[in-house]
Write a structure and sequence with these properties.
It is a single chain. This protein is α/β, with parallel strands linked by helices and about 400 residues long. It has three domains: about 80 residues, Winged helix-like DNA-binding domain superfamily/Winged helix DNA-binding domain (Arc Repressor Mutant, subunit A, Orthogonal Bundle); about 120 residues, ATPase, nucleotide binding domain (Nucleotidyltransferase, domain 5), CATH 3.30.420.40; about 160 residues, ATPase, nucleotide binding domain (Nucleotidyltransferase, domain 5, 2-Layer Sandwich). It contains 13 helices and 13 strands. The strands form three sheets. The protein has a five-stranded mixed sheet, sandwiched between helices. The chain has a five-stranded mixed sheet with strand order 11-10-9-12-13, with helices on one face. Strands 1-3-2 form a three-stranded antiparallel sheet. α6 links the parallel β7 and β8. The chain binds zinc ion.
Length: about 400
C-alpha cells in the first residue's frame, strides 16, 4: 500500500502537489528537518507542517535520528526521512569484467554492497541477466520484498547520449557502443532504469553524501587506470550535447603523443592515469602489481613507488590546471583509487595544479581559492551514484 502511494508521489505528475514536492525533497536529500523542507521546496512552513502530518499518518514519512546541533542549546530539530519500509532502490556499476550492486532504502540507508566477476567480453544481455540474479539473491538474503524495488540506476564506463540514452563509441567496452542500456535492462529487471556515465554518477555520490555536500558547483577528477571526470553546475551534472562533458582524460596534451584508446593522440589519460606506471612497477618487481600494492609500498617508503605516484600527480595537475583555467571551480574533488595514496598524491598534485592554473592562491583571498580535496567514495563512488540516480531522478524515465 505504502509502496504504491510512494511511487505515485515520486512520479512527475505529483511534482506540483505539496506532498509530491516534500516526498521528492526527502528522496533526494535523505534526512531533513521541517525548516529545511520548507526552504528547499519553497512551501510555507504551515503547508509543510500539514503535509508532513498527513504523510506521517499514512506511513510514508517517519522520524529519523535527530540532527546533532553542535554547541547550540535547545531541543534538537526533528529530522524526517521517507519510511525505509516504503521502498528500495538499486545501483549497478557495470565495469571491466565486473558488476557491482548496491541496495539502499528510500531513507538513504545502505542495505547491501556486492560484487561479482563477469567474462571479460560480456554482452549487455549477460550483464542484465547477472544483475537480475544479484538483485534477486540480495533481496532474498535480506528478506526484502522485491515488489518494493522502485528503480535501478546503472553506471556505465563511457559517455551516454543524454538525448537517446545510447552509449557512445568511446566506451571501454567497444562492443557496447550504440546500445541503449534501458532497452536491454528494462525488460529483464521490469523496473524503471536510469543510466549515466560512471564519473557523472561518482559526482552525484559526492554531492549527495560525500566531499561535495552543500556544493552546487564543483568538478570531479578521477585518477585510476583511466582518467575521468564530471562537471557539476547549479546542482546538476553537465552532460553536454552528446554526453561527453567532463571527459578530462581525453584532452589532447601532446598532438604527437602515443595513440589513445579513443583514437586520438596524446590524451591526458596516457600520462595521468596509473596504467603505464603500473606496467613499470610490474617490470621492476617482476610480478603483476596492483594499484594497492604500489600505494602500500609507497607509504612504506619505497622511493620508486613514490616517484611513480608523484609523476602521475604532476601530469594530472597539468590537466587540472587547464580545467582550473577554464572553469575556475570552487572545489575539485579527487576520486578514483589513486586518491587512496592520500598526501603522496595530493601534495604534488596541488603543486602542479597551482603551477599550471591561471589564478594562483596568492592572487585571491581564502573563499575565492580553488580547494582540492579527496572524495569520500574512492572505492564505490560510481555505484553509490547509481543509487543516487534513482533517488534524485525517480519518475523521469518511468
Ligand atoms: Zn583519448
Amino acid at each position: 500500500m505504502h509502496r504504491i502511494e510512494l511511487k505515485s508521489l515520486l512520479a512527475d505528475r505529483a511534482v506540483g502537489t505539496p506532498s509530491g514536492r516534500v516526498v521528492r525533497a526527502l528522496s533526494e536529500r535523505g534526512a531533513l528537518s521541517a525548516t529545511q523542507i520548507a526552504h528547499i521546496t519553497g512551501l510555507a512552513k504551515s503547508t509543510v507542517s500539514m503535509t508532513l502530518s498527513e504523510l506521517r499518518k499514512s506511513g510514508i514519512v517517519v522520524e529519523g535520528p535527530s540532527l546533532e546541533r553542535g554547541a547550540s542549546v535547545g531541543r534538537p530539530a526533528t529530522v524526517l526521512t521517507l519510511n525505509p519500509q516504503a521502498g528500495t532502490c538499486v545501483g549497478v556499476l557495470i565495469g571491466l569484467g565486473q558488476a557491482r550492486v548496491i541496495v539502499a532504502d528510500v531513507s538513504h540507508a545502505i542495505i547491501a554492497d556486492t560484487v561479482t566477476e563477469l567474462d571479460p567480453d560480456f554482452s549487455p544481455e549477460q550483464a542484465a541477466e547477472e544483475t537480475r540474479r544479484m538483485i534477486k539473491q540480495t533481496y532474498a538474503e535480506h528478506s526484502m520484498p522485491l515488489c518494493g524495488l522502485l528503480g535501478v540506476g546503472v553506471a556505465v564506463a563511457g559517455p551516454v547520449n543524454p538525448i537517446d540514452g545510447r552509449m557512445q563509441r568511446a566506451s571501454v567496452v567497444p562492443t557496447w557502443a550504440g546500445i541503449d542500456i534501458r532497452t536491454v535492462f528494462g525488460p529483464v529487471l521490469q523496473r524503471p532504469i536510469l543510466v549515466d556515465n560512471e564519473s557523472n554518477c561518482a559526482a552525484l555520490a559526492e554531492m549527495m553524501w560525500g566531499a561535495a555536500i552543500g556544493y552546487e558547483d564543483f568538478v570531479l577528477f578521477k585518477i585510476d587506470m583511466g582518467v575521468g571526470g564530471a562537471i557539476v553546475s547549479g546542482g546538476r551534472v553537465l552532460t553536454g550535447i552528446a554526453g561527453s562533458a567532463g571527459e578530462f582524460g581525453h584532452m589532447t596534451v601532446d598532438p604527437d603523443g602515443p595513440l589513445c584508446r579513443c583514437g586520438n593522440r596524446g590524451c591526458l589519460e596516457l600520462y595521468a592515469s596509473f596504467k603505464t606506471p603500473l606496467q613499470h612497477a610490474s617490470k621492476r618487481f617482476d610480478r603483476p602489481m596492483t594499484m594497492d600494492d604500489v600505494i602500500v609500498l609507497a607509504k612504506e617508503g619505497d622511493v620508486g613507488c613514490r616517484r611513480l605516484i608523484e609523476d602521475t600527480a604532476t601530469a594530472a595537475g597539468r590537466g587540472l590546471g587547464m580545467i582550473g583555467t577554464i572553469l575556475n571551480p570552487g572545489l575539485i574533488v579527487i576520486g578514483g583509487r589513486m586518491a587512496l595514496a592520500g598526501d603522496l598524491l595530493m601534495t604534488p598534485l596541488a603543486a602542479s595544479f597551482e603551477k599550471h592554473t591561471l589564478v594562483k592562491r596568492s592572487d585571491v583571498s581564502g573563499p575565492a581559492r580553488t580547494e582540492l580535496t579527496i572524495g569520500k567514495f574512492t572505492e564505490n563512488d560510481s555505484c553509490m551514484g547509481a543509487v543516487g540516480l534513482v533517488l534524485r531522478h525517480h519518475g523521469r524515465l518511468a
